[in-house]
Design goal:
The protein is mainly β. The strands form 4 sheets. The protein has a 26-stranded antiparallel β-sheet that branches. The longest helix is centred in the N-terminal third of the chain and has 17 residues, at 2-18.
């Protein structure tokens, strides 16, 4: 009985520990603050700091050894932040001077502001000891990596000065950079700090290690001395001019183009964004990393275009992002030509309204018109999305979606089946106060000419998180006729179950800081074929997070595949595996990632074993060499060796991607990526020089070159872009 009471008391203590309440006062001032990284103004001495940070790594039960102090001041237009970050020494890791750096493996301090107190969305600002700044949006409660978006930009200033054993950051963030309700007097707030010298990560509000460090369930309060006034953002006009020269060697065609267009951004009230774009051009967006796809299904790549970023979760987090996502913004501006090849389709204009109407209700409205392309027989389309979200309980919400693609070209090459496609749906997103329970439940229906019945998708996921266990039950159904032209649907006519259980163990001694043991069972049936089993994958895995910041992992895959259609398993245009055949095969994957705080670090991931009716060896690796803070050299490589029995062909596939990243200073950057794919028989070069000559205003010089890398090495396509964007404030 005594043991039971002791255990119960311990659990209660842990619960209180991880649901602690902390607050910090934000003083209203009228004096001027000079942003110089010194904190010498008298006002800074009138406020108490947010301190007493807790370790997140290597443990989550102790106070941080290197503490941080954060102070806030504000006037009617600006939030001032003063931060003092202590460190064991001045040997900081700062890999680059490029804005929007990644936090892992470097020294930095990050602050998150939940301005609507909903535990769902937050504005993130951070800096490092060299004063390089970053900003991001956190959505979905901070429960998934895909809810962390660094593509978002806003205008703010900051200075950082290093002293012996600490550095001081001083920021001025315009209130217009945030969205909030007028009259509000409290925001939720948290901060996390990475210290490479002490090998420590810490947070102001204590967060258990089984949650992401940017989880929004764990936040304290910042209390403003006076209610906040309306801080309407200025209207931003962002014109661009882009000149392009190019040459198509295969078609012996030279071309040139001068494009002029722009975006406009304004705020309606304090919390709604209105974005406009005319003659959109996204050529400054970083080139996608090529992938080797050995599956039978399409692979999706993340959205990087700034216009689609802010409040993107409001549109994109519907359904199941892997199997049945009804809206995937990268579909807009891409279309298939007469040879069924994806090519760019010009966006004529677009408008987007997104944000909060009040603390409980969010709205998103997107409308974009794409051009008619007669040469490639692509019809113009009007693409619309309406999303409504209402908060329920502490951190849950219910959302409604309407997606519409409507043909506007009236051309003879647009078939009746292509006239329109529409999707309506409802989602319930569950997240309790401490994120111990989260989940999603949805039902969507599509409307397409000549397709009726079995045109809906539905899914459910419920996950439990504790310090020792992560247990998930989930499944999805996608009907044979469910179609979303603006979505991402890997396959139709499936019923899928993919439960998962993970056990977390935190040893007190040894080189491993955290063990994770997992079992995942993924099974898919085809309902229209009497629920015939189509695939299963039983995954057993172990991952060890090392105390030196590295990682080890091992995974065993036991697979079953039934081919309803023939499939070229070696991707060699040879004899395909026949339809209506089944395969059982197993393989193993190992992984090691070295300490990314080091000047030289790497990841190696070999896979070996059976592959359909043959064998496969895959070796994936990343090598990084840093000459901080100005130069980073890296190479990403993948090699696949596929051996199949006769008459099926073997294949060896190479994918290489060396990258050179030079940051001359905080305003001038040069990035070059070379990619070789033996599958495409192509060598691609993308080299981009960026000069940020004014806040959020850039000059880009982009050089693209592609070569045929088959039996004969020959040029394919070459272009050079000179683009200027400039932010004007009205």
């Amino acid at each position: 009985m005594i043991r039971k009471l002791t255990t119960f008391a311990f659990l209660i203590t842990c619960t209180i520990c991880f649901t602690q309440s902390k607050s910090i006062s934000v003083k209203h001032i009228s004096e001027k603050i000079n942003i110089d990284g010194a904190l010498t103004e008298d006002a800074w001495n009138l406020v108490k700091p947010a301190t007493n940070f807790w370790q997140y790594f290597p443990t989550d039960t102790l106070q941080a050894e290197s503490q941080t102090e954060i102070k806030f001041l504000y006037d009617d237009k600006t939030l001032f932040v003063g931060i003092k970050v202590f460190a064991p020494g001045n040997d900081y890791v700062v890999p680059s001077l490029r804005r929007d750096f990644r936090a892992g493996g470097s020294d930095n301090i990050t602050l998150m502001f939940d301005t609507f107190n909903d535990g769902t969305n937050a504005f993130l600002f951070g800096t490092n000891p060299e004063g390089v700044r970053r900003e991001a949006l956190v959505s979905g409660g901070g429960t998934e990596l895909r809810g962390f978006t660094t593509s978002w930009d806003t205008k703010w200033i900051g200075e950082t000065v290093q002293y012996e054993g600490y550095y001081i950051c001083e920021w001025a963030i315009p209130m217009a950079a945030f969205k909030f309700n007028e009259g509000e007097s409290r925001w939720r707030f948290n901060s996390y700090m990475f210290d490479t010298q002490g090998n420590e990560r810490s947070t102001w509000i204590q967060i258990p290690q089984n949650q992401f460090i940017f989880n929004l369930a764990y936040m304290g309060d910042m209390v403003f001395e006076k209610p906040l006034k309306n801080s309407k953002s200025p209207i931003s006009i962002i014109p661009y001019v882009n000149g392009i020269l190019g040459q198509e060697f295969e078609l012996e065609d030279d071309f040139s183009e001068l494009k002029v267009g722009g975006d406009a951004r304004m705020t309606i009230g304090n919390s709604l964004n209105l974005d406009l774009t005319i003659n959109s051009d996204f050529s400054q967006v970083e080139v996608d990393q090529q992938v080797t796809n050995l599956s039978r299904f399409e692979v999706n790549l993340p959205e990087q275009r700034q216009f689609f970023i802010e409040n993107s979760d409001l549109f994109a987090d519907f359904g199941n992002n892997r199997d049945a996502n009804p809206f995937f913004s990268r579909r807009i501006g891409i279309a298939k030509d007469t040879s069924d090849t994806n090519i760019l389709n010009d966006i004529i204009a677009g408008v987007r309204l997104s944000g909060k109407l009040n603390n409980d209700f969010r709205i998103g409205l997107l409308n974009m018109q794409t051009a008619n392309d007669e040469n490639n027989e692509i019809g113009g389309n009007n693409n619309s999305v309406l999303a409504l979200q209402h908060k329920l309980f502490s951190r849950s919400n219910i959302s409604l979606l309407f997606v519409n693609r409507q043909n506007t070209s009236n051309k003879e090459y647009v078939t009746p089946e292509e006239e329109y496609n529409r999707v309506v749906g409802i989602d319930y997103n569950l997240a309790n106060a401490d994120n111990s329970w989260n989940g999603k439940f949805f039902v969507h229906k599509s409307f397409t000419p000549f397709l009726e019945n079995d045109d809906y998708s539905a899914g459910a996921r419920l996950q439990y998180n504790s310090n020792s266990w992560r247990i998930r039950g989930s499944g999805v159904y996608v009907g044979e006729n469910f179609q979303s032209d603006l979505g991402f649907i890997r396959r139709t006519d499936i019923f899928k179950l993919d439960p998962q259980a993970e056990y977390l163990l935190f040893p007190k001694k040894g080189i491993v800081n955290q063990h994770t043991f997992g079992l995942t069972t993924i099974m898919q049936w085809q309902p229209l074929l009497d629920f015939q089993l189509a695939d299963y994958n039983i995954l057993m895995e172990w991952e060890g997070a090392l105390k030196d910041n590295g990682r080890l992992g091992a995974r065993i895959f036991n697979r079953y595949t039934y081919l309803f259609d023939e499939f070229d398993a070696s991707i060699s245009d040879g004899t395909p595996l026949p339809a209506n055949t089944e395969y059982r095969y197993s393989n193993m994957e190992l992984e090691y990632r070295s300490d990314n705080r080091k000047t030289f670090f790497y990841t190696i991931r070999p896979t070996f074993g059976q592959y359909f009716n043959g064998d496969i060896v895959t070796i994936r690796g990343d090598v990084n060499w840093r000459f901080q803070p100005h130069l980073n050299l890296s190479i990403r490589a993948r090699y696949d060796k596929i051996n199949l029995p006769d008459p099926f062909p073997d294949n060896q596939i190479w994918l290489l991607g060396p990258r050179l990243d030079v940051t001359f200073n905080k305003s001038l950057f040069w990035n070059t990526l070379v990619q070789y794919s033996s599958l495409d028989e192509n060598v691609g070069i993308n080299s981009r020089l960026q000069w940020r000559f004014a806040p959020l205003s850039d000059l880009f010089l982009v050089y693209n070159d592609n070569y045929f890398a088959g039996d004969v090495f020959a040029p394919r396509f070459r272009s050079i872009n000179l683009k200027v964007t400039y932010w004007l404030y009205l």
